[in-house]
UniProtKB/TrEMBL annotation:
Protein name: Ribosomal RNA small subunit methyltransferase H
Main location: cytoplasm
Annotated localization: Cytoplasm
UniProt family annotation: Belongs to the methyltransferase superfamily. RsmH family.
UniProt keyword annotation of Transferase present: yes
PANTHER family according to UniProt: 12S RRNA N4-METHYLCYTIDINE METHYLTRANSFERASE (PTHR11265:SF0), S-ADENOSYL-METHYLTRANSFERASE MRAW (PTHR11265)
Signal peptide start-end: none
EC number(s) given by UniProt: 2.1.1.199
Catalytic reactions of this protein: cytidine(1402) in 16S rRNA + S-adenosyl-L-methionine = N(4)-methylcytidine(1402) in 16S rRNA + S-adenosyl-L-homocysteine + H(+)
Role noted for this protein: Specifically methylates the N4 position of cytidine in position 1402 (C1402) of 16S rRNA.
Length: 338
């Protein structure tokens, strides 16, 4: 399937929602249905879903800047239609169940999640997500909690090495952590350029062309925002919130995210590893009929044209599943004798 490479009309230039055509094909928006965009970001998916069908969309984001963009889209839709079918919620998608229940939202017909850092966050120098330009070492997706500067200037060397290794998949994590601790003993590390230069001093460039600081920045960012915890919680809750026939569509951008998505969807579809015969609970779960079917047996990848037009799409992976109809319990009732 070829990826859509042009953004919807009225969309901000430079912000292109990744694998948009594939997301819409999997989600199949329809009139009268209710959907959730758990990672509103720049609103690319939200706008496209609302344009594809006369539906209602709830949108969550932990970033106050994204919420402001959502309110602007609400005003635009209200001016066009006399009403808005978009409802914004400030919070993390890992708390979607409580956030939606507090607003008495019924079962959903579809959920879409676009994982990781958004293009807006990468492009805003003051957010400190990117080392392409110098900015404060922040990396928070919201405006609360410890910053990346707090982490690199206070965390114990061994813990810092573990964060960079486990979340950044940097094999030289101990060397990086040692260099950071040595540098902060001389002066606090406060900017993205400072941290990137420290990492580059101990991690040699390789043939991939990826900047040596990339993996360490990823690891620290994931830790700052508890991204994997949010993903695990969000996937579990999204699967529980869908109505029969509802669909979950997830776009991820690196192996740690994709692994969590793959495992969650496989469990929901009954594709579990063989359980131990000594664990009766696992055997019972294995025997239970699956409540989901996979729409993607393998992750979908963006097309060559999209990758060329939008280099940020190159690492994207899309997986999707559909909730099966509830079993008809009358079929299993014993026949009553007169």
């Amino acid at each position: 399937m070829n990826a859509m490479t042009t953004p919807p009309a009225g969309h901000r230039p430079g912000h292109v929602p990744v694998m948009l055509a594939e997301v819409l094909a999997m989600l199949q928006p329809r009139d009268g249905a209710a959907y959730l965009d758990g990672t509103f970001g720049g609103g690319g998916y939200a706008r496209a879903i609302l344009s594809a069908a006369r539906c209602t969309l709830w949108a969550i984001d932990r970033d106050p800047a994204a919420i402001r963009r959502g309110h602007a889209l609400q005003s635009e839709l209200r001016a066009q239609e006399g009403e808005t079918r978009l409802h914004m919620i400030h919070g993390g998608f890992g708390d979607m169940q409580a956030l939606l229940q507090a607003r008495h939202v019924p079962a959903l017909d579809g959920v879409v999640l676009d994982l990781g850092v958004s293009s807006f966050q990468l492009d805003e120098v003051e957010r400190g997500f990117s080392f392409r330009t110098d900015g404060p070492l922040d990396m928070r997706m919201d405006d609360t909690g410890p910053t990346a500067a707090d982490i690199v200037n206070t965390m114990a060397e061994s813990d810092l090495a573990d964060v960079i290794y486990e979340y950044g998949e940097e094999r030289l994590s101990r060397r990086v952590a040692r260099a950071i601790v040595a540098a902060r003993a001389q002066a606090p590390i406060l900017t993205t350029f400072q941290l990137a230069d420290i990492i580059r001093s101990v991690v040699p460039a390789d043939r991939s062309g990826i900047d040596p600081a990339t993996r360490s920045f990823q690891g620290i960012r994931i830790h700052v925002n508890d991204e994997l915890g949010q993903i695990a919680a969000g996937l579990d809750q999204a699967l529980g919130l869908l109505a029969p026939g509802g669909r979950l569509v997830v776009v991820s951008f690196h192996s740690l995210e994709d692994r969590l998505v793959k495992q969650a969807l496989n469990r929901a579809a009954g594709r579990l590893p063989a359980p131990s015969r000594h664990d009766p609970r696992a055997m019972q779960a294995r025997a239970a009929a699956p409540s989901y079917r996979l729409l993607t047996t393998r992750a979908l990848r963006p097309g060559a044209a999209e990758c060329h037009a939008n280099p940020r799409a190159r690492s994207a992976r899309l997986r999707a599943a559909e909730r099966l109809p509830l079993p008809d319990i009358t079929d299993n009732q014993p026949e009553r004798r007169p």
